[in-house]
């Protein structure tokens, strides 16, 4: 299941650190109900997903990867495959039917039950322990024009021409009783096997669930000129300060419509792996999935450059287990009073125009068909002023520098309520603001009588979002 985009990257982990700022940054995909607290019912309230199957509103996340420049001791994010011009790349989530045999009988595979959650991997691990949990973490050094190379259990120590694919296989054997456990893993087991992805379940974990497997591709090849293998230590470090890769991990909170997943497990067995031929699924388009985002819960730069990893995580190479960071200054919760992202200026008082949200645009059939201008120093305020001077009632900015005006907004291309959209390119004239995207239009409307209020994004679980923010604020001042 290719998830073409991600919801957000931030220090959020509702499994390990519910209601609090997580210790390190994660890259997160799935349903847009994702928040610092998340249960099954909340996940099912999602109005979109960055993954394609509409019946799957689960949450999937892994740690972010950074490049460490030893010369000045600084860090910057490593882009994921699909990151380009403000667009956010995603991940692949594989659902695999791999039952074992017990006494000659093939095990029945079960869907994840409602409320189920788990983690695979240990963020504090810094050495290869040889067990199935360790074997479940692998790294592939990608070279599409060269011979294949063996996967490793640690970050590659050479330049990879097409980046690094990071992989985690989850345990698939459930004790049949607990939807979660204190460590979020002991209610699960890997099969009785020499490999983590096949075999029968042990007697204490008799329920064989559908297997899941994450892949994330990081574009480490963009930094090939910044280090010399064999001379320098490999420079990449996971968000929790792990330069080995042994601490890579994946988190999963089930958000499936369970009967649909069970029907797919039972019936959709085509070996091609083509999910679109499964009769039980319906799908978001790639455009809908890539437009599915969540507003930040935390005011924090997680991309870099910076001198210290978010969460104050030092590089801890091991081989002993990493230690928990103490006394790190608390990040500031993002303001949620208006529901307006901080990258969108409030022009209601200063100009009498309100923000409608992020709509769609087409090169050959423009959403706003009036006057246009393209300026290298474009901002939303400049575009609104220009459109007002032309007598327009709508103004839209796109692709950082383009301004479009109009007197009508087609419903089919207008912003969708509760969807942040794909307007994630910075403005030519102000890099702290967003000015649309590729085929995405940040749209304002002239206020004419009555209240002049921006479209507020509070997400599909607005009450929970506000509750989570209050919890953060109490935690910050505790």
Layout of strands and helices, then pairs:
Blueprint: E1 2-3, E2 8-10, E3 26-30, H1 40-43, E4 59-63, E5 65-69, E6 74-77, E7 91-96, E8 101-102, E9 105-106, E10 109-110, E11 117-120, H2 132-135, E12 137-141, E13 164-169, E14 173-174, E15 188-189, E16 207-209, E17 211-218, E18 236-238, E19 250-253, H3 258-267, H4 286-290, E20 298-299, E21 332-333, H5 348-351, E22 353-360, E23 372-374, H6 380-389, E24 394-398, E25 402-406, E26 426-427, E27 430-434, E28 440-446, H7 462-477
Parallel strand pairs: 10-16
Antiparallel strand pairs: 1-7, 2-3, 3-4, 4-19, 5-6, 5-18, 7-17, 8-9, 11-19, 12-13, 13-17, 14-15, 14-16, 20-21, 22-28, 23-25, 24-25, 24-28, 26-27
Could you write a compact summary of the structure shown?
This protein is an alpha+beta fold and 478 residues long. Helix content is 11%, strand content 23%. It has seven helices and 28 strands.
Structure characterization notes:
The structure is a single chain. The protein is α+β, with helices and mostly antiparallel strands. The chain contains seven helices and 28 strands. It has helices at 40-43, 132-135, 258-267, 286-290, 348-351, 380-389, 462-477, and strands at 2-3, 8-10, 26-30, 59-63, 65-69, 74-77, 91-96, 101-102, 105-106, 109-110, 117-120, 137-141, 164-169, 173-174, 188-189, 207-209, 211-218, 236-238, 250-253, 298-299, 332-333, 353-360, 372-374, 394-398, 402-406, 426-427, 430-434, 440-446. The chain has a five-stranded antiparallel β-sheet with strand order 1-7-17-13-12.
